[in-house]
């Protein structure tokens, strides 16, 4: 009777956990399903009970205030700080939504901060507080204009590093730029400032910014020919100040794995020569890998929870029997 009651309770608990996971999963009108990645997410209080982060390492001048922010640099000269994930982001398609704050008291300010998806991790340097000659993708939020005529600052720029080419700091990365946009008003903004980077392997890379009005996203850049990001790439953030300074704060990071659950039409058609010679391509098969992956994940989690609970219950019963002998 007790075992039956315990199994019922365990199954109920497992169902609740699975429902909780399912509630965090959303599918938009385009059929894109998103699943949160806890390993690449930062939210208050940022640290565990032992004052460490399970999924991120940090160093340099980074300060973590558990109820407010992760401060990469304070509003003081010659500061540099970083925070990097401990495990690589291996998802094929993903979305990273970052809330940040660039602010300070000075009329003149600098230098800026960066978001990284690179093979290198947790190494300080002189490219917005992280190492130069990186391999992967860097997104630079540059607030100080060195030598780039005709460009309005602050400027947000993407660079694709091959592990050999250095960042041209003297010219604000002009020769390194993959894509970018001006973002006047991103510093000391009156509304929460955010960046949303969305990547579909071999299909698209898009960066959107929010700084003018809440829930109003401005397209910074978008391409249907995205760069190849290393299969083992760590998510990180770093900031730097020189003679001029600012506070560079990370408020939150939400990373999601994306799955396309809808079938997409094949637009390739046929290369027929005369009028009426072309034919429609066959409909693409429904991409159900995301659905099946999520299904198996739920099944494994379910039985893992039930099995773990059973082992714990068995150990408890054994301990009880031994106690009764004395």
TrEMBL record:
It is a single-pass type I membrane protein. GO terms for cellular component: COPII-coated ER to Golgi transport vesicle; endoplasmic reticulum membrane; endoplasmic reticulum-Golgi intermediate compartment; Golgi membrane. Residues 1-19 form the signal peptide. It comes from the Eukaryota. GO terms for biological process: endoplasmic reticulum to Golgi vesicle-mediated transport. Residues 270-279 have a biased composition (Gly residues). This is L-type lectin-like domain-containing protein. Coiled coil: none annotated. The chain crosses the membrane at residues 292-316. Residues 34-258 form the L-type lectin-like domain. Residues 261-287 are annotated as: Disordered. Keywords: Membrane, Signal, Transmembrane, Transmembrane helix. It is found in: Membrane. GO terms for molecular function: D-mannose binding.
């Amino acid at each position: 009777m007790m075992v039956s009651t315990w199994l019922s309770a365990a199954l109920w608990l497992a169902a609740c956990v699975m429902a909780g996971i399912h509630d965090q999963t959303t599918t938009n009108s385009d059929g894109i399903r998103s699943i949160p990645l806890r390993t690449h997410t930062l939210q208050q209080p940022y640290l565990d009970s032992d004052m460490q982060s399970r999924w991120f390492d940090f160093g340099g001048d980074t300060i973590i205030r558990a109820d407010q922010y992760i401060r990469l640099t304070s509003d003081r000269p010659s500061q540099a700080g970083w925070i990097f994930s401990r495990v690589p982001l291996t998802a094929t398609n993903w979305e990273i939504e970052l809330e940040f704050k660039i602010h300070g008291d000075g009329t003149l300010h600098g230098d800026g901060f960066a978001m990284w998806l690179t093979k290198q991790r947790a190494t300080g340097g002189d490219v917005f507080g992280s190492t130069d000659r990186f391999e992967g993708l860097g997104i630079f939020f540059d607030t100080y204009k060195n030598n780039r005529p005709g460009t309005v600052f602050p400027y947000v720029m993407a660079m694709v590093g091959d592990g050999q080419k250095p960042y041209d700091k003297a010219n604000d990365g002009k020769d390194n730029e993959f894509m970018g946009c001006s973002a006047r008003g991103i510093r000391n903004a009156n509304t929460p400032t955010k960046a949303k980077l969305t990547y579909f392997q071999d299909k698209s890379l898009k960066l959107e910014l929010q700084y003018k009005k809440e829930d109003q996203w401005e397209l910074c850049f978008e391409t249907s020919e995205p760069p190849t990001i290393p299969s083992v790439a760590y998510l990180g953030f770093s900031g730097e100040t020189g003679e001029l300074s600012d506070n560079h704060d990370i408020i939150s990071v939400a990373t999601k794995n994306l799955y396309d659950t809808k079938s997409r039409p094949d637009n390739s058609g046929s290369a027929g020569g005369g009028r009426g010679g072309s034919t429609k391509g066959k409909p693409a098969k429904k991409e159900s890998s995301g659905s099946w992956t999520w299904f198996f994940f739920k099944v494994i989690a379910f039985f893992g929870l039930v099995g773990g609970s059973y082992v714990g219950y068995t150990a408890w019963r054994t301990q009880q029997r031994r106690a009764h002998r004395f």
